[in-house]
Write a structure and sequence with these properties.
Structural class of chain B: mainly alpha
CATH superfamily of chain B: MetI-like
Largest sheet of chain B: none
Shape of chain B: flat
CATH class of chain A: Alpha Beta
Structural class of chain A: alpha/beta
Strand order of the largest sheet of chain A: 6-7-8-3-9-10
Largest interface: A-B, 29 and 23 residues
Bound molecules: adenosine-5'-diphosphate, magnesium ion
Shape of chain A: globular
CATH architecture of chain B: Orthogonal Bundle
CATH superfamily of chain A: P-loop containing nucleotide triphosphate hydrolases
Radius of gyration of chain A: 19 Å
Largest sheet of chain A: 6 strands, mixed
Number of strands of chain A: 10
Strand content of chain B: under 5%
Distance between the termini of chain A: 46 Å
CATH topology of chain A: Rossmann fold
Helix content of chain B: over 70%
Distance between the termini of chain B: 55 Å
Number of helices of chain B: 8
CATH architecture of chain A: 3-Layer(aba) Sandwich
Order of helices and strands of chain A: EEEHEEHEHHHEHEHEEHH
Helix content of chain A: 40-55%
CATH class of chain B: Mainly Alpha
Oligomer: heterodimer
Number of domains of chain A: 1
Number of helices of chain A: 9
Strand content of chain A: 15-25%
Chain lengths: 258, 219
């Protein structure tokens, strides 16, 4: 099994946007090399949780530690912390006025002050590995949704983050492009990256996760291995949530047969 | 039509056009400066300045340039503040243009999706860098059509400078009509002079727009 070094610790996190609690007493540890998949119904606070981790949202109480250091303080230097936390969003978030290469190199050159040549060589290596080297001079508008998301992943990866956060990165994609993005994430998981993934792709969740966290109404209701969670969920709400998926699948199959 | 008259006074028009365009360019420069500042103040919702910017925009938008110029040129001297005609022209034009340019910049800034800022922040860029490398380049190119339209609008507005006894195009035309009653010739030359000034700007603007759209995003 993977080593048990705590990388990220979330302790009694409360978040409120001003109209009722969105996260209620959320506590969760992520260990080095671990892949945690967060699932739960829409609006339950999954995005909010990820956004709190990299400081895009203010929290009301509780704390978050990265490498044992509290990052939810006023004096937190977010620019430094965020270099250790890669994030990919649901909507295609590439910078539309820059080529693929410039998108990827912005962080290394402007934030980390790395040598452009050296960073570019690395960018090309990664692009090649995911089959996008021929797109290095393309603009985002010339890419498919799946390609954009893969570039967005590379842009985060090249910063060599300690943990990667993925917020429904395939939710806005056409079905035939979902796979190519999930494959990149699977590859990352295999290579030992620490990841927190929010997804509605249940089969993928089952394949990639070391641990499933079920979030509902801003609370963590279950934390379990994928095997146990998907075969024997403990709470009724998790059962109901999983049922909505199998219902969907059966209806689709039924639809095709007609 | 008296061609001899026209040819004789072409140099006068050229000189006047120079003044018009000169004042126009300086005024546009300051308009852009004011406009960008105001739009950034509003974008970042900077406390006190935001209020001042709001008042400025209302004042600038809801008073005619002519009235602003009268105030600067005839009103202020009564309070002991005296500007030259040229200074009044430039201050007036910038005061007017600033709010229009601010609006053009603002629409560009507002068109940029929030996730652009967030993803730039999430790779560790500082706020200033996010602005410089991600938000402004996109916002500015989206603002270009509005900015160009405003430039043309402002050059046209310079025609009221004649009340400041500045020998701009309008002034020269009125003068010639008053002196020689050559109304047709004087007005024809006036129209042509403005066309010669504004057409190139207009053409350049649409070229720029097309270029930006092409190089740009449209995803
Ligand atoms: N910026 C915001 N302002 C106010 N309410 C918000 C904001 N973002 C999210 N919420 C609310 O917080 C709840 C959780 O949202 P979110 O974290 O996006 O859920 P999920 O990602 O699980 O679908 C929802 O009820 C949503 O309406
Ligand atoms: Mg979400």
């Amino acid at each position: 099994m993977k080593e048990k070094e705590k990388l990220l610790e979330i302790k009694h996190l409360h978040k409120d946007y001003g109209n009722g609690p969105v996260l209620k007493d959320v506590s969760l540890n992520v260990h080095k090399g671990e892949v945690v998949v967060i699932i739960g119904p829409s609006g339950c606070g999954k995005s909010t949780l990820l956004r709190c981790i990299n400081g895009l949202e203010q929290i009301q109480s509780g704390k978050i530690l990265l490498d044992g250091e509290v990052i939810t303080e006023n004096k937190t230097k977010w620019s430094e912390v965020r270099q250790k936390i890669g994030m990919v969003f649901q909507s295609y978030d590439l910078f539309p006025h820059m080529t693929v290469t410039d998108n990827i190199l912005l962080g290394p050159t402007k934030v980390q002050g790395r040598d452009k040549k050296e960073a570019e060589a690395e960018a090309e290596r990664i692009l090649e590995r995911i089959g996008l080297l021929d797109k290095k001079n393309a603009f985002p508008r010339q890419l498919s949704g799946g390609q954009k998301q893969r570039v967005a992943i590379v842009r985060a990866l090249i910063m060599k983050p300690e943990i990667m956060l993925f917020d429904e990165v395939t939710a806005a994609l056409d079905p035939e492009m979902v796979r190519e993005v999930l494959d990149v994430m699977l590859e990352l998981a295999k290579s030992g990256s620490t990841m927190m993934i929010v997804t509605h792709e249940m089969q993928f969740a089952r394949a990639v996760a070391d641990r499933i966290v079920f979030l509902d109404g801003g609370e963590i209701l279950e934390t379990d291995t994928p095997e146990k969670f998907f075969t024997r969920p403990k709470t009724d709400r998790a059962k109901r949530f999983l049922n909505t998926f199998s219902f969907h699948m059966e209806r689709e199959r039924g639809g095709k047969a007609i | 039509m008296d061609t001899e008259f026209i040819i004789k006074y072409i140099p006068l028009y050229v000189k006047a056009a120079g003044l018009t365009i000169g004042l126009g360019i300086v005024g546009i420069f300051f308009s852009l400066l004011i406009g960008l500042s105001v739009s950034l103040i509003q974008y970042f919702k900077i406390p006190v300045l935001k209020r001042i910017a709001g008042i400025y925009i209302e004042l600038s938008r809801n008073t005619p340039l002519l009235v602003q110029l009268f105030f600067l040129y005839f009103g202020l001297p009564k309070a002991g503040i005296r500007f030259s005609s040229q200074a009044c022209a430039i201050i007036g034009l910038s005061f007017l243009g600033g709010s229009y340019m601010a609006e053009a910049f603002r629409s560009g800034l507002n068109a940029i999706d929030k996730v652009q800022e967030e993803s730039a922040l999430s790779i560790g860029l500082k706020h200033g860098q996010v602005m410089r490398y991600v938000i402004l380049p996109q916002a500015l190119s989206l603002s270009v059509p509005g900015l160009c339209a405003n430039m043309i609008f402002l050059i046209k507005e310079t025609s009221v400078f004649s009340v400041l006894a500045l020998a701009d195009l309008m002034y020269v035309a009125k003068d010639l009509i008053g002196l020689y009653y050559k109304t047709d010739e004087a007005l024809l030359m006036l129209v042509i002079a403005y066309l010669v000034l504004l057409l190139p700007i207009s053409v350049a603007a649409s070229f720029l727009e097309r270029r930006l759209r092409y190089a740009g995003f449209g995803n």
